[in-house]
UniProtKB/TrEMBL annotation:
Record-annotated membrane-spanning stretches: 184-212
Protein name according to UniProt: Uncharacterized protein
GO cellular component: plasma membrane
Record keywords: Ion channel, Ion transport, Membrane, Sodium, Sodium channel, Sodium transport, Transmembrane, Transmembrane helix, Transport
Family stated for the protein in its record: Belongs to the amiloride-sensitive sodium channel (TC 1.A.6) family.
Subcellular location: Membrane
Record flagged with keyword Transport: yes
GO MF annotations in UniProt: ligand-gated sodium channel activity
A Pfam family reported for this protein in Swiss-Prot or TrEMBL: ASC
Its membrane topology: Multi-pass membrane protein
Length: 227
């Protein structure tokens, strides 16, 4: 999965795994938006039963567990559950597979009820893998032999794995409102000013003009009546 990447390590080859972390955050002012509109949940908006912290992956796992428990009366051993929840045996494998497949189908009602969105703050890891043929020399073998092997160093089925970060910097992505209500008002004022020579200051001047004219006209009527 994107949040838990994995790869294969080949025997008799050297493998280099480079990790690329990605940080996604959301501006706090978007908290007042509907989660479906902003496309994510804050930590305190979507509590989970089996996990302390909300992530989309945790939400999916909990949804699969609930679907399996509701349909099959048990939960697979590799899914989260409470201590008193029955664990599915081999005879319930088909039932569990069907219920989990239905829970991840976007067109199924079970998927809609899960209501799993990405977390508003999350860290994901991508990996890039490179492997190549490596002739493990005697010097390399001796370096590993002293700490791992008590006997002769194996000549076959040996793999060298190097794990490192691809860069020393992490680029964070932030969800922001591209077009807010303030921007909407500003654009309306700008368009009116461009095509009609109109501004909100002109609007207040017009209102002031009519109010002043009304009171002036009313004052003149009173003067005529007194005369």
């Amino acid at each position: 999965t994107p949040s838990h990447p994995s790869t294969y390590v080949h025997a008799d080859r050297a493998t280099t795994i480079k990790i690329v972390p990605e940080i996604k955050t959301t501006k706090e002012e978007l908290r007042r938006w509907d989660p479906k509109l902003r496309g994510c949940f804050f930590d305190d908006e979507r509590p989970l039963q089996y996990f302390q912290y909300y992530t989309e992956k945790n939400c999916d796992l909990e949804c699969e567990s609930n679907a399996s428990l509701s349909r099959c009366g048990c939960v697979p051993f590799y899914h989260p559950r409470t201590r008193d929840t029955p664990v599915c045996g081999p005879e319930k494998y088909d039932c569990c597979f069907e219920s989990i497949a239905e829970s991840i189908d976007p067109d199924s009602p079970s998927f809609q009820n899960c209501n799993c969105l990405p977390a508003c703050f999350e860290i994901e890891y991508r990996i890039s893998v490179a492997n190549f043929q490596r002739n493990f020399s005697t010097a390399t073998a001796k370096g590993f032999q002293s700490g791992i092997f008590s006997g002769n160093f194996p000549e076959n089925n040996f793999a060298l794995v190097t794990v490192q970060y691809q860069t020393q910097k992490v680029i964070a992505q932030m969800r922001v409102a591209v077009f807010s209500f303030t921007d909407f008002i500003a654009n309306i004022g700008g368009l009116l000013g461009l095509f009609l020579g109109f501004s909100f200051l002109s609007l207040f001047e017009i209102i002031y003009f009519f109010v002043l004219k009304y009171y002036k006209k009313r004052s003149n009527k009173r003067t005529d009546t007194d005369n």
